[in-house]
């Protein structure tokens, strides 16, 4: 058995032969699809959420006035619901500020780092969700009996609060949950349960489709990941879950 000279191997690789690390597709479309492979599971999830929107709304949404009022008056429902606002995260951020300040850090940004990361993750995730609403222009299911109805382009800014994709409450809750999970990994399940509970309240209220919540989770994940890498770059590569330097 003879072995081809290195020059022949190099020329074969240059002609698009099979070499480790080379793109399997030679056409421009094939290369684009190859690069999009990491996003395919997210796209499949979005498609599944869109297909399940009507079913989930019809099974979960409580449209009767008396039942809805009784549900929304319960403390557990209110606790999960308020997780979609900045108030609880402001309190947790303040607690982090006091704890890190007690460690007597050398620089001001050392005790501001964690609370700023938490609040920016929650606030920017909610802002991203709100910014997407006029672009998609789909009304909330509670206004359309669970059917897809899209606002005219001329009305999308005036009907801002009637648009559903994406859920800003779910985005805020998941943005905060993802941020806290990065800082306190052992408590991550607790934070994620709180965010999921917030998302469920939006579905029970009929205020959002399942896909509205799903897109909110994607936005929160993207925002938190971007802030995490930015924070790490600005702190000499030190991860935010590492203890503050005294």
3D architecture notes:
The structure is a single chain. The chain has 246 residues and is mainly alpha-helical. The protein contains ten helices and no strands. It has helices at 6-14, 28-35, 40-60, 65-72, 75-82, 87-101, 108-136, 168-183, 188-204, 210-234. The longest helix has 29 residues, at 108-136. The protein is globular and about 55 Å long. Residues 6-23 have low confidence and may be disordered.
Number of strands: 0
Assembly type of the shown chains? single chain
Strand content: under 5%
Number of helices: 10
Quick summary:
The chain is mainly α. 63% of the residues lie in helices and 0% in strands.
Descriptors:
mainly alpha; globular
Topology:
Layout: H1 6-14, H2 28-35, H3 40-60, H4 65-72, H5 75-82, H6 87-101, H7 108-136, H8 168-183, H9 188-204, H10 210-234
Helix pairs in contact: 3-10, 5-9, 6-7, 7-8, 7-10, 8-9, 8-10
């Amino acid at each position: 058995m003879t072995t081809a000279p290195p020059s022949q191997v190099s020329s074969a690789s240059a002609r698009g032969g099979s070499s480790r690390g080379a793109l399997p597709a030679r056409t421009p479309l094939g290369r684009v699809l190859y690069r999009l492979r990491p996003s395919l599971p997210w796209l499949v999830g979005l498609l599944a959420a869109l297909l399940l929107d009507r079913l989930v709304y019809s099974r979960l949404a409580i449209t009767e006035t008396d039942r809805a009022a009784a549900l929304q008056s319960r403390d557990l429902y209110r606790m999960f619901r308020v997780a979609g606002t900045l108030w609880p995260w402001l309190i947790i951020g303040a607690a982090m500020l006091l704890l890190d300040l007690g460690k007597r850090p050398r620089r001001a940004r050392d005790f501001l780092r964690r609370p700023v990361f938490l609040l920016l993750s929650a606030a920017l995730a909610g802002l991203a969700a709100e910014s997407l609403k006029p672009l998609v222009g789909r009304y909330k299911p509670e206004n359309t009996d669970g059917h897809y109805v899209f606002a005219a382009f001329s009305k999308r800014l005036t009907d801002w609060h009637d648009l559903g994709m994406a859920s800003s409450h779910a985005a805020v809750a998941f943005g905060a949950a993802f941020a806290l999970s990065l800082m306190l990994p052992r408590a991550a399940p607790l934070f994620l349960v709180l965010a999921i509970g917030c998302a469920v309240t939006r579905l029970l209220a009929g205020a959002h489709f399942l896909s509205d919540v799903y897109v909110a989770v994607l936005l929160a994940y993207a925002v938190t990941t971007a802030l995490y890498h930015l924070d790490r770059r600005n702190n000499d590569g030190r991860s935010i879950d590492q203890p503050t330097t005294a």
